[in-house]
Amino acid sequence: MKRVGVFLCWCGSNIAATVDVGKVAERVRLLPGVVHVEENKYTCSEPGQASIIKAIKEHGLERVVVAACSPRLHEPTFRRTLETAGLNPYFLEMANVREHCSWVHPDREKATDKAFDLVRMAVARVLKNEPLARGSITIEKRALVLGGGIAGIQAALDIADAGHEVILVEREPTIGGRMAQLDKTFPTLDCSSCILTPKMVDAAKHPKITLYTYSELEKVEGYIGNFHVTVRKRARSVDETLCTGCGLCQTKCPTKVPSEFDVGTGLRKAIYTPFPQAVPNKPVIDRENCTYYKTGKCRVCERVCEAKAIRFDQEDVLVEERVGAIVVATGFDLFDCSVYGEYGYGLYPDVIDALQFERLINASGPTEGKIKRPSDHEIPRSVAFVLCVGSRDEQKGVSYCSRACCMYSVKHATQYMDKVKDGRAYVFYMDIRTPGKAYEEFYKRSSVEYGVQFIRGRPSKIYQKGDKLIVKAEDTLLGRPVEAEVEMVVLAPAMVPKRDAARTAQTLGVSYDGFGFLNEAHPKLRPVETNTAGIYLAGVCQGPKDIPDTVAQASAAGAKVAALFSRDEMATEPMIARVDEALCSGCLWCKPVCPYKAIEARTVTEKVHGRTVSREVASVNAGLCQGCGACTVACRDGAMNLQGFTNEQVITAVDELLAGLRPACS
Amino acid sequence: MPNNPTLDKNMTETETALRREAARLLSQGEVAVFLGHEEGWDGVPVPFAASTAAEAGRLVWNPLSAPHLAKYLLDRLEGDEKVGIVVNGCGSLALDRILKDRRFPRERLHVVGIPCSGMLDPARVAALSDEERERVLKDGPVDPGLFLDRCSWCDVPNPVVSDTLLSEPLPVVRHRPEYPRVAELEAMDREERAEYLRGLYERCIRCFACRNVCPACNCRECCLDQWEPLWLGRATSPAEQQMFHFIRAFDVAGRCIRCGECERVCSVGLPLMELNDKFLKDITELFGVERPHIPADVEPLGCFEPGDPDLEDHG
């Protein structure tokens, strides 16, 4: 029998407080195959790892079990330790006695028993481990960045500055994203456009960046280092190479529709650029609203275009690109405030949301920066700002905090007070959260210097009375009901995932949470990676955050991509599916279940009773296979096996657990 | 379940036509062997492989020709000679199962199809008195309870796979399958159900007849026969018996054609289709597949769809 060493980690008090590690050690010592048992306060620490290396050498260990935290955290760490000691790194098994035991069980005695069971199973399993070898794949040093908001722009610039080609794909006709819609940014109040537009231009002008606007990701195939992506370039109905961006077509176009960029507070034409600083500054025709597409008549834009750039018959183009890494920066939508019927959003014209307010105070917005309320274009003498519309509300909205709304609402109130000197601004809040550099000071200034009034309480009802709006709430600090008569209400909606976030995730093959935010690989230690190798996250698509955090994450994703591209080849995990061709009956039901399209049919020739016969069997592409194990479950023959996670290993572990329960005769 | 099975009045003519067609195929060398039924020792047809025109004369087609034949193709995987086979509606589903599982090449088959309006359950007929049995087999009328269970809801009277049809196709009335036997199983709470299944499978003697007859059980080497890893302990114990049936039910889930042959051949009369029916019903309810027992090119449980929702607790 192989010589097994077992290393029991205390994880400080994380494990040792609940599990009697000494007692587990005593019992583990008696298991067949175990020749060395050792306890460590922190096995993952440098001395902890050194003691494993020492024990491997001193006791001639051939297999190692580490009973500690989740293998998601430290399996790679200990594999490296084994490798350093000269053992095959896959002769390691981890028993998760922290997340699966000490953290979730209060009873010390029972937890200790369970910890022993987990270690016992790992010991049985490790005896079945086979040596595995890593392969290597080449890396295509080009990146795809999905989404051209500030996150996507920053990531694209960082990767391009590192010397790699970037393909930046943006769904809208221009890059810029949400940040382009904002007026000023907290807490410094610098103008959003002034800091964003130069970056937009940088991205467009960068020799290493290819920009696809008005384009969408259609399909992703392949794997880290070798993705094949298909991008649909939607028909702009304008020849970009000819268009000079003079804007005459937009002036002459007879059709006006509410502008998405202005969130309905202003109008745009059917042929339009979303805003004057758009990049590229080339218009698109909105075919749903264009008179020509609807009635077959008009073509005014075509007539006035001196560059002859209008192309009514333009069609979508599918572009295929090979990239080695993908950064997802697809951004967010806002929670639909009309879910709160009692706030009257959509019913009372002067109840608007925060993004609409951004457009109202923006100098390039529909009111040229004058705060005019939508109903009568009068300057409101008082405004109520309502926080947490959707956020932190499990009943009607989402459970999480959207993180930026406190600060931008404070900013809105400050800006309002700055522009309307005799105005009154009320902020209705649950808590004011200011966890950022200079955020608290900004919040303080808003009340001390600008006289914004903060009322702790969520409004229960907003209704119209004459040309005023009445906000009813309970002031929970005073413990009594309050009523504010205001002339405009600004709601701060929760940030929610893009409506098609789940579809994006499925196209990319990355996981997402119950809300639709994309999952990072580890909440603390791998915050920009996804669980799909080679795909990284930046910005709100991963979870609500403000601009500084978004930019930081985007640069982090860029750094990850640059690190990946610093090598020509990378090692691949050997824990992938393998076919036992003798068992495989060639039904290929494994093929449609494979999310990575890693399975193909292969013809094998074999001698049967002296005759040579050929038959089809499944075959796994080692580059594509991610080791998810879907095929091993689908395979009724038991021919498909996951290396390092084989049927034999799993059954042995289960048998070990059930050993006491089996009838004596088996 | 609005199907009223009847016995085909022209079975004798069909039988003659079957013998003639099989003899022709064999004598002209179109097939090397023809899979059909011959009369068994107790008068119930048993599977039979005719390899000469003369042997084709022993083929029978009568109200008791219930056993499906497709599974016997697996004995003929080696070689490249063509095989003839006779199927009725449900028999063609069994054949299609084998074909969709890519276990036998279609080009090596010559399928003789017989539209079928109903088959009797040999066991139920055997329980009748001698006179009654003779009367039923001769000219009816037949108590609907004597038919195979699958005939009571069958809406595939005509073979879905065939090269030649021996009679005119029958009119088809499609209906949504119902699963009345699942109701009781679903009404039980977890403990009750565990207790019920434990008691049920305790009676199993593991003769493996269910597996052997099942057209969806067509692996090269059954996992239940494998030693390394040992999927199923060899000891006779209630737990192993239960595992045996669970493994089998899960292995055929999504591919079961609801023929009920497992239940028909069970030596201890276990209601094996209850669990299979439960899975079929679940597939309809969860994946919206109207007739989940009809073999499909992509099985609802055998594919990855980008639309498959990620489980909420993944986050």
Report on the structure:
The complex is a heterodimer of chains A (666) and B (315). Chain A is an alpha/beta fold and 666 residues long. Helix content of chain A is 27%, strand content 26%. Chain A is globular and about 85 Å long. The two termini of chain A are 22 Å apart. Chain B is an alpha/beta fold and 315 residues long. Chain B has eleven helices and five strands. In chain B, strands 2-1-3-4-5 form a five-stranded mixed sheet.
The main sheet of chain B orders its strands as 2-1-3-4-5
CATH class of the largest domain in chain A: Alpha Beta
How many discrete structural domains of chain B?
A: 2
Mean pLDDT value of chain A? 95
How many beta strands in the DSSP annotation of chain A? 34
The biggest beta sheet of chain B, please? 5 strands, mixed
Radius of gyration of chain A: 31 Å
Low-confidence stretches of chain A: none
Taken in chain order, the helices and strands of chain B follow as HEEHEHEHHEHHHHHH
Identify the overall geometry of chain A: globular
Give me the CATH fold name of the largest domain in chain A: FAD/NAD(P)-binding domain
**Average predicted confidence as pLDDT of chain B:** 91
Q: State the total count of DSSP E strands of chain B.
A: 5
Indicate the percent of residues in helices of chain A: 25-40%
Backbone shape of chain B: globular
The greatest interface here is: A-B, 44 and 34 residues
Structural class by secondary-structure content of chain B: alpha/beta
- The side-by-side strand order for the widest beta sheet of chain A comes to 10-7-6-18-29
Give the topology.
The complex is a heterodimer of chains A (666) and B (315).
Chain A: E1 4-9, H1 21-28, E2 34-40, H2 46-59, E3 63-68, H3 71-84, E4 92-96, H4 98-102, H5 108-126, E5 135-138, E6 142-146, H6 150-161, E7 165-169, E8 184-185, E9 190-191, H7 192-205, E10 209-212, E11 215-223, E12 226-233, H8 248-252, E13 256-258, E14 267-269, E15 271-272, E16 284-285, H9 291-295, H10 300-304, E17 317-323, E18 325-328, E19 332-334, E20 351-353, H11 354-361, E21 382-389, H12 405-419, E22 424-429, H13 439-448, E23 453-456, E24 461-465, E25 468-475, E26 480-486, E27 488-493, E28 495-497, H14 501-508, E29 535-537, H15 547-565, E30 569-572, E31 577-579, H16 590-593, E32 599-608, E33 611-620, H17 630-634, E34 640-642, H18 647-658
Helix pairs in contact in A: 1-5, 2-3, 5-18, 6-7, 6-15, 11-12, 12-13
Chain B: H1 11-27, E1 33-39, E2 45-50, H2 53-56, E3 83-87, H3 89-100, E4 109-113, H4 122-126, H5 130-139, E5 164-165, H6 182-187, H7 190-202, H8 209-213, H9 238-252, H10 261-265, H11 273-287
Parallel strand pairs in B: 1-3, 3-4, 4-5
Antiparallel strand pairs in B: 1-2
Helix pairs in contact in B: 7-9
